[in-house]
From TrEMBL:
Keyword Zinc in record: no
Family: Belongs to the NAD(P)-dependent epimerase/dehydratase family. UDP-glucuronic acid decarboxylase subfamily.
E.C. designation(s): 4.1.1.35
InterPro entries linked to this entry: NAD(P)-bd_dom, NAD(P)-bd_dom_sf, UXS-like
Localization per record: Cytoplasm
One example of a Gene Ontology biological process annotation: UDP-D-xylose biosynthetic process
Name of the protein this chain belongs to: UDP-glucuronate decarboxylase
GO cellular component, one term: cytoplasm
Essential cofactor(s): NAD(+)
Renumbered residue ranges of the record's region Disordered: 1-24
Keyword vocabulary terms for this entry: Cytoplasm, Decarboxylase, Lyase, NAD
Polar residues: compositionally biased ranges: 1-14
Example of a GO MF term: UDP-glucuronate decarboxylase activity
Amino acid sequence: MGDNANSNESSSPSLHLARSPPQPSPIRLSKFASQKMRILVTGGAGFIGSHLVDRLMEAGTNEVIVADNFFSGTKDNLRRWIGHPDFELLRHDVTEPLLVEVDQIYHLACPASPIFYKYNPVKTIKTNVMGTLNMLGLAKRVGARILLTSTSEVYGDPLEHPQKEEYWGNVNPIGVRSCYDEGKRVAETLMFDYHRQHGIEIRIARIFNTYGPRMNIDDGRVVSNFIAQALRGETMTVQAPGSQTRSFCYVSDLVDGLIKLMACDDTGPINLGNPGEFTILELAEAVRELVDSSAKWKVVDNTPDDPRKRKPDITKAKSILKWEPKVALRDGLPLMVEDFRSRLGIHK
Ligand SMILES: NC(=O)c1ccc[n+]([C@@H]2O[C@H](COP(=O)([O-])OP(=O)(O)OC[C@H]3O[C@@H](n4cnc5c(N)ncnc54)[C@H](O)[C@@H]3O)[C@@H](O)[C@H]2O)c1
C-alpha cells in the first residue's frame, strides 16, 4: 500500500534528521478534478457527523465521502443523501488504511458515549490511535487538511475552571475512561507530530458536551438519558451527587464551529462548547418541566472518574473563529424532545 502511517514509521532516524523542511502541499485535487471540494467525514453516520454532512452537502459546493463502521452510528442518519451524486457512503473501519483522493478530512470516527466506548476499550484506543494514524497518513499522501474532533475529556477532572486550551488536564491514565480520554490525548499528539514533522495542515477542536436530534436514544449520555426516561415514564437516574456541572452545546452551533475551524488559519486546539453551566439536577428539572411535570428522578451511584466540573473558556474561539453558540438550552432541548418523541413513537 502507499504512504500510510506504517511506511512513515519505517524511515530511519538519520533520515528524519537529514529531512529538508516540510514541502508545500501537493496540488489540491479539486483544482483539476472537479470544481467541488472533496471532503471525507469519518464517523459521518453518527450524531455530530451526520449533522456536519448535512451542512456540507447543503452548501452545494462539496462532494462528501463518509467512512463509518456503523458501531454507534446508523445509515438512517444519512438517508436523505444516499443516492445523491455528490455523496458516497463507505462501510470502513478507520483502524484499517483508507485511500481516497480528498481535499479535507473531518476525522470524527470514535464512539463518544461511555456505554459505547467502554464496551470494547481496546478497540476504542485502537480507533483513536491507529485510526488517527491512518487518517494522518492519508492526509500526508494526498495533501489534505485534517481536523480532529478531540474532547473536553482531555482535561480529565479539571483542577482549573473554566478550562482554557493551555490547561494540560488531570486525567487518570489507567481508569475505565482512559481508553477514550488518553486515546484522544494521543490522537492530539499524533496530529501535532505530523504537523511538525511532515508539514500536514491540522486543526483540533476540543468539543464539550453536545446535544440535539439524532443522538443515540440509549447511549447513556445525560441529556439523551433524561429525555428518553421522562418520555417512557421512567424515573430519571441522576448520577451522584447531581451537583456536578456540565455545559451543553446545541449541535448546529457545534457544526458552525467545526466548519469555521477547518477554514481558519489556526491549528488549534480550540475549545468548542457552550459556556452556560448547569448542574445535572438543573438539567433533570428542565427536562421534567418540558416533558412531564409529574416525572420523578432518583440519585444513583456514579461511575469512576466522572468529572465534577466542566465549562469551556471560549475566548480563543470567539477571537480566532468569531464563533460563539447561539442556541440556549431552553431552545435546543424542545427540538431534541421532538426528535426523541417521533423516534420512540410517543406522542402524548
Ligand atoms: N457528542 C459530544 O458531546 C462529543 C463531545 C466531545 C467530543 N466528541 C467527539 O465527536 C466525535 C463524534 O461524536 P458523536 O457524539 O457524533 O458520537 P457517535 O458515536 O454518534 O459518532 C461516532 C461515529 O463514529 C463511528 N465509528 C466509531 N468507531 C469507528 C471506527 N473504528 N471506524 C469507523 N467509524 C467508527 C460510529 O459508528 C459513529 O457513526 C467523536 O470523535 C467524539 O469523540 C463528541
